[in-house]
Specification:
435 residues, signal, 19 helices, Bact_solute-bd_prot1, Putative ABC transporter-binding protein, D-Maltodextrin-Binding Protein, domain 2, alpha/beta
Length: 435
């Protein structure tokens, strides 16, 4: 079967190369500065060799990327032929007609192999508008040696109470070890995503069924007070400005007892080339509070084509290359199976080589347990786990996250941050015609 597939792939590549060499293009791709995307840039010569097309990369920090691509596509700026976007933007932009539908991908690409959770979140009315480069949920990554030293054992289903107690027990300020590292950085997809997912497990929600903001509730007050209290006790200095990359660096340096974040980080914290604690990492589901909702999210970083590109054929060829089964094999051959892009394809989790990776099953379990259609304890009117899938959310949530980060930094009280969040959210929703 492998030989047959390899021959089919070789035939397809030959056809692409023949077609591509006749009219080679240079495509411009906007992407996020996450490790998997940077790794892809290092392998781009493989794409160029197979197609004749060159690639120019614009690599940006997460918040900056979102701002740049949103501005470019909404104003039809035409700066990019491919954009790295996610589950929030894709259905909205697809509905607006801003993206090229990916409804005619090649048979060899096998779009049916994409995990349903990912395909569903990257579609509008059943049509795929972005292909997942990797998919993720969130989970606990923890130092097994520090947990043992504290005399504790990570439960199968950890609670936030246990996490806070464990964080305090593992904190060693004299040796620069923080019991827990979490995102506090402003930005709807940075600290905003984390605190929203966490709030679900505390019984909070962004809106009631009439689109009234809910930041004046006890559930949100409990969420923010718990987060700030735990991080002040056991988190790193300056946590209010730490996002994914900052916490990854701290964990790899051995300065975090626990880190709750994207499942995709597992390959980086267990890579001995980058992580000083690679052989001392365990994994557990994101914590809950016994209310029936865990605090894990659902996300995919995906590649999409803006409708205005003049290089659509070359862009489709790149997306097929970068999100294919063959690309996974390419990464495995160069970096090992633990470092392939996770969470996007069914076949990956059926592959014995990947099943042997220690975090593979926990990643899949976390992805499958996140339900964007039923993410809150009380009924809510929106789809999404760590976001509300409405066009106004990105702007509102960015402002709300700035209020929260100011509270984390001690620049205002939690009560003031929630009061400001309540007012600005209701004002924005009223202006947008929801109320």
């Amino acid at each position: 079967m492998f030989v047959k597939n390899a021959l089919c792939a070789a035939t397809a590549i030959s056809l692409i190369t023949t077609a591509g060499s006749a009219s080679a293009e240079t495509i411009t791709i906007a992407t996020v500065n996450n490790g998997d995307m940077i790794r892809m840039q290092g392998l781009t010569d493989d794409f160029t060799a197979k197609t004749g097309h060159d690639v120019e990369w614009v690599t940006l920090e997460e918040n900056v990327l979102r701002q740049r691509v949103t501005t470019d596509i909404s104003t039809k700026g035409g700066a990019f032929d491919i954009m790295t976007i996610g589950m929030y933007e894709t259905p909205i932009w697809g509905a607006n007609g801003w993206l090229v539908a990916l409804d005619n991908l090649s048979e060899d690409y096998d779009a049916a192999d994409i995990l349903p959770a990912m395909a569903g979140g990257l579609s509008h009315d059943g049509t795929l508008y972005a292909a997942p480069f990797y998919g993720e949920s969130s989970m606990i990554m923890y130092r097994t040696d520090l947990m043992e030293k504290a005399g504790l054992e990570m439960p199968k289903d950890p609670t936030w109470t246990f996490v806070r107690e464990a964080a305090a027990a593992m904190t060693d300020r004299d040796n620069e070890i923080n019991g827990i590292c979490l995102r506090g950085k402003a930005g709807w997809g940075e600290g905003g995503a984390f605190i929203t997912a966490m709030s679900n497990s505390f019984g909070a929600r962004w809106f009631d069924m009439d689109w009234n903001a809910q930041f004046d509730t006890e559930a949100w007050a409990n969420t923010l007070k718990f987060f700030k209290g735990m991080m002040d006790e056991s988190g790193p200095a300056g946590y209010a400005t730490n996002g994914f990359n900052e916490n990854l660096s701290l964990f790899q340096q051995g300065k975090c007892g626990m880190w709750i974040d994207a499942t995709v980080a597992a390959s980086f914290v267990t890579n001995p080339n980058d992580s000083t604690v690679a052989d001392k990492v365990g994994f557990a589901l994101a914590p809950d509070n016994g209310l029936g909702k865990r605090s894990n999210w659902l996300w995919a970083w995906a590649l999409a084509i803006p409708a205005g590109t003049q290089k659509q054929d070359a862009a489709i060829q790149f997306i097929e290359w970068a999100t294919s089964k063959d690309y996974i094999e390419l990464v495995a051959a160069n970096e090992g199976w633990a470092n392939v892009p996770p969470g996007a394809r069914i076949s990956l989790y059926e592959n014995p080589n990947y099943q042997a990776v220690p975090f593979a099953q926990m990643t899949l379990d976390s992805i499958l347990s996140a339900d964007p259609n039923n993410s809150t304890v009380e009924e809510s009117p929106y789809v999404g786990v760590q976001f509300a899938a409405i066009p106004e959310f990105a702007g509102i949530a960015t402002e709300v996250s700035q209020e929260f980060s100011a509270a984390y930094a001690g620049q205002q009280t939690v009560e003031k941050a929630l009061s400001n969040a309540q007012a600005l959210t209701n004002d924005a929703m009223e202006a947008a015609g929801y109320r």
